[in-house]
Specification:
The protein has 162 residues and is of the alpha+beta class. Helices cover 27% and strands 29% of the residues.
């Protein structure tokens, strides 16, 4: 549980720092101009979590832009793998289609005692539950990745050991 709490706190701090960094440039006394190019925050690293449920899951995947994935599970050693090129492409497409800026952070608490909470967060926004309609088809891609990677190194079709 402390590992999940650390990840949530770190991500919240990262989002807060990122949000504070976007200001207009001041060009003279009392005049401001908008920046000439407004870049959207990167969607990577994506953090996909699964907590709760009857089995008491505490799983955290952190996916970097280059496809490296750090997998942390309760009572297991952390491991890493690299997504296949096809998996990187699918995940990147799914993450880029999520309207991160319009997502209101979701509750990370279970709705009832045995609720399984699967969420995704990005420096661009979140956290949001995978079943939230705002995530769209991306929720299915994130869920598929989560399930595939948590089968273990031998059972994964989307990731090769690093």
């Amino acid at each position: 549980m402390p590992q999940v709490t650390r990840v949530i706190c770190f991500t919240a701090a990262l989002v807060a720092v990122t949000a504070c960094g976007s200001q207009n440039a001041v060009t003279g006394p009392g005049s401001t101009t908008a920046p000439t190019s407004v870049s959207q925050p990167s969607v990577f690293p994506l953090t996909i979590t699964r907590t709760g449920g009857i089995a008491g899951f505490q799983d955290v995947l952190v996916v970097a832009r280059d496809g490296m994935v750090s997998i942390t599970r309760r009572a297991q050693a952390r491991r890493q793998c690299r997504l296949t090129p096809d998996a990187v492409e699918r995940l990147t497409k799914a993450a880029s289609q999520v309207p991160w800026a319009r997502i209101t952070p979701a509750s990370t608490a279970p709705s009832f005692p045995d609720d399984l909470v699967a969420m995704v967060r990005s420096p661009a926004g979140g956290p949001v539950r995978l079943e939230d309609p705002k995530v769209g088809a991306g929720g299915q891609v994130f869920n598929e990745l989560l399930n595939d990677l948590l089968r273990g190194a031998a059972g994964s079709r989307m990731c090769t050991p690093a």
